[in-house]
């Protein structure tokens, strides 16, 4: 991607995507590749990762005119036909001018549809018209092998006998995937083989993993009771073939033990991978338990833990990197993952086996 004449533009949308794009922004800017970034939805200027790659030379850009339209005027338009008309006009005028004025040579976005979300269409569409390469990078590292890994894919396979079709992803110049398994899945989903490149997950690259861990633990003052082991329990997407009742029951059993239990929800939010307030209240009555919020970063929590329980999330790599004991309760999720039979994690088949571990 290195280009001495043009700038690389990263489109940053959500916390999860920042987690996996920050290493690329940092690495490019640190080796003197002209690197720019743009917030297309929520703005994370105070995030520790943003502050870190800014020090390496990455620079934020934005369009004042586009911001005014997207954040104000667009919300006042009542009819969808008017929104489409204004979007189309501003994409052709403001979007095109924005890319030219900032000398953009490559646009990097998160995995997703060819137009993306938030302000992304105002950059991705004109980039294609101008012949500027667009690259999609993955959210994380998918560890499953089975195609029906979540409710959406299972429903598509049941209805059509095929995976959800992602042929529109072919509008990207390149679509980056983490493994040969996901490359296979993507091809079956309709993405052309020549568009796909297996590059792994930068979030769990050894170089960045060490940097990220050190950044997270700086100033992290949460103490722990040294008389009891700390057990860290990571939740995953509920729709990823997870038995929610069994999961909550296991957490309840652990809370009754003589341990300091920390539960960390998935960063996608309440509806996808965290507990409801009612569920938290029930668990709090069971024993010693705390719930880590989004401000409590996973690497710092792993640092505190003696044992990490994870049944689907790629955060398992972080725990293994820190050489923590990792327990995978097989009975909580029916997905087949890369960790099964690997010898890297303890595979428990019941509540009793988890507790005895």
Compile the SSE list and pairings.
Blueprint: E1 7-12, H1 15-30, E2 35-39, H2 48-55, E3 59-60, H3 64-76, H4 80-101, E4 104-110, H5 121-129, E5 134-137, H6 151-160, E6 174-177, H7 180-188, E7 196-198, H8 206-217, E8 230-234, H9 244-255, E9 260-264, H10 270-273, H11 277-284, E10 289-292, H12 298-304, E11 307-310, H13 316-321, E12 325-329, E13 346-348, H14 351-356
Parallel strand pairs: 1-2, 1-4, 2-3, 4-5, 5-6, 6-7, 8-9, 8-11, 9-10, 11-12, 12-13
Helix pairs in contact: 1-2, 4-5, 8-12, 9-11
What descriptors fit this protein?
single chain, alpha/beta, Rossmann fold, 2 domains, 6-stranded parallel beta sheet, 40% helix
Question: What features would you describe in this structure?
Answer:
The chain has 357 residues and is of the alpha/beta class. The protein has two domains: 7-206, 3-Layer(aba) Sandwich (Rossmann fold), CATH 3.40.50; 221-356, Rossmann fold (3-Layer(aba) Sandwich), CATH 3.40.50.2000. The chain is built from 14 helices and 13 strands. The strands form two sheets. Strands 3-2-1-4-5-6-7 form a seven-stranded parallel beta sheet, sandwiched between helices. A six-stranded parallel beta sheet has the order 10-9-8-11-12-13, sandwiched between helices. Helix 2 links the parallel strand 2 (35-39) and strand 3. The radius of gyration is 22 Å and the shape is globular.
